[in-house]
Design brief:
Elements: E1 2-6, E2 11-16, H1 24-34, E3 41-44, H2 51-59, E4 63-66, H3 73-88, E5 97-103, E6 110-119, E7 122-131
Parallel strand pairs: 3-4
Antiparallel strand pairs: 1-2, 5-6, 6-7
Helix pairs in contact: 1-2
Length: 132
């Protein structure tokens, strides 16, 4: 099952079943066609980090924030190289915004440091989490 959730309104906008012989990658574009997303910010986990899905979101006149992990090795490697290069010199060559937060629940707490770099029309984010 793939669902579209309106965070601010706490409501499901739509959902579609993932076929038994398929996965989320084929279900997400179908869901995007079922709902009105123009002007929205669409966030999807690493499974949805696919060119076809990004193209569909752009075609629907929406923005996106896609997680990048090992399923996109070239993109993952490029983003890691970008942030490692700039972490070494404390972001002296590029403008970034830094956000810090601490979370403590029932288990171990986590400290988050997020770095955001806007390059033209693209925004790259690095999130580092440390347990305490």
């Amino acid at each position: 099952m793939v669902s579209a959730w309106a965070t601010e309104n706490h409501i499901s906008l739509g959902q579609t079943v993932v076929d038994a012989k398929s996965n989320e990658i084929t279900a997400i574009p179908k869901l995007l066609q079922m709902i009105e997303v123009s002007g929205a910010l669409i966030t999807i986990d690493a499974m949805g980090c696919q060119t076809e899905i990004a193209d569909r979101i752009i075609a629907e006149k929406a923005d996106y924030c896609l997680a990048v992990k090992g399923n996109q090795p070239t993109l993952n490697k490029g983003l890691k190289a970008f942030f490692l290069k700039h972490l070494e010199n404390d972001f002296a060559d590029v403008e970034v915004q830094e956000f810090q937060s601490n979370e403590k629940g029932h288990g171990p707490g986590q400290s988050h440091v997020d770095f955001v770099s806007v390059q033209g029309l693209r925004c790259y984010c690095l999130s580092q989490a440390t347990r305490f």
